[in-house]
Design goal:
It is a single chain. This protein is α/β, with parallel strands linked by helices. The protein has two domains: 118 residues, Rossmann fold; 108 residues, 3-Layer(aba) Sandwich (Rossmann fold), CATH 3.40.50. The protein is built from seven helices and twelve strands. The strands form two sheets. A six-stranded parallel β-sheet has the order 3-2-1-4-5-12, with helices on both faces. Strands 6-11-10-7-8-9 form a six-stranded parallel β-sheet. Helix 2 crosses helix 3 and helix 5 crosses helix 6. The protein is elongated and about 65 Å long. The N and C termini lie close together (5 Å). The structure holds NADP nicotinamide-adenine-dinucleotide phosphate. GO terms for molecular function: precorrin-6A reductase activity. It holds the Pfam family CbiJ.
Length: 252
């Protein structure tokens, strides 16, 4: 897709992840015009290279309109694997606006040898499977901690980038942005004497060390499985996606 003045149409990256920033940087370096979209959930997001817009589009219709108005030549869904709504919207809007869509979908983490994982379908189930008296490390971000508020029979420590609006009395909130090296994770888990960890199977390299640390200490992990997404042409790494974009001559 090329504009009438011969200039290639921009690429829109739906971002909010480290890989999305890496993609934006590589595509900007290759001379392409890149726009990244962030949801606006965090007050001080790490900013990608290239142009950036912040905030929702207004559902499928809004995103399709944006794709058309901005003459987007390629839509890349590089959002977090648990951001299911925007990924579904991307598939639908790309179809409506007739814009090619590719998805960056990193592989899931696998249970390390000898480690104990309790796999659950959703966060509410994670709260259900914790035994009474558990001392729990929540490594799930800020948005879904309310799923655990009713478990007054357990102790909770939540690690978050930004403080949550509210948390029950007695909860410990650790404000920190990763990556955290494996030894630091082992020290943290041991220091607090956690009996359980709750995590989402994001597959991110930057946050995998907590999984290795839990395995090392024999701490069971309640692992929330990924939501299912509508099919899209998907790539497991920034490199394979960039290779495809080059080979396919996108945006064309
Ligand atoms: N969910 C997680 O665990 C997680 C973890 C780390 C980072 N993130 C990042 O945080 C953002 C929000 O995640 P979520 O799980 O809340 O999303 P979500 O539930 O899939 O999306 C909810 C709504 O937020 C808006 N939205 C989401 N991502 C957007 C983006 N990149 N640009 C513009 N609008 C966006 C869309 O609003 P409209 O319908 O109005 O367009 C969407 O319908 C994403 O960028 C994601 O990559 C999420």
């Amino acid at each position: 897709m090329t504009q009438s003045n011969g200039v290639a149409n921009p690429i829109l990256i739906l971002g909010g992840t480290g890989e999305a920033r890496a993609l934006a940087a590589a595509l900007v370096q290759s001379g392409r015009r890149v726009m990244s979209s962030l949801a606006g959930r965090t007050a001080n997001p790490l900013m990608p290279e290239g142009e950036v817009r912040i905030g929702g589009f207004g559902g499928v219709e809004g995103l399709a309109r944006y794709l058309r108005d901005e003459r987007i030549g390629l839509l890349i869904d590089a959002t977090h694997p648990f951001a299911a709504q925007i990924s579904a919207n991307a598939v639908a809007a790309a179809k409506v606006a007739d814009v090619p869509l590719v998805r960056l979908e990193r592989p899931q983490w696998l249970c390390p040898r000898g480690a104990e994982w309790i796999e659950v379908e959703e966060m509410a189930q994670a709260a259900d499977v914790l035994p009474a008296g558990a001392n729990v490390f929540l490594a799930i971000g800020r948005q879904e901690i309310a799923s655990f508020f009713h478990r007054t029979d357990c102790r909770f420590t939540a690690r978050v980038i930004e403080p949550p609006e509210t948390a029950p009395e007695g909860w410990t909130i650790i404000g920190a942005r990763g990556p955290f090296p494996v030894q630091a994770e082992i020290d943290l888990l041991a220091l607090h004497g956690f009996t359980h960890m709750v995590a989402k199977n994001s597959g991110a390299a930057a946050s995998h060390d907590k999984i290795l640390a839990a395995a090392e200490l024999g701490i069971p992990v309640v692992m929330v499985k990924r939501p299912s997404l509508p099919p899209a042409r998907s790539f497991e790494s920034v490199k394979t996606l960039l290779d495809y974009i080059d080979q396919a001559g996108l945006p064309n």
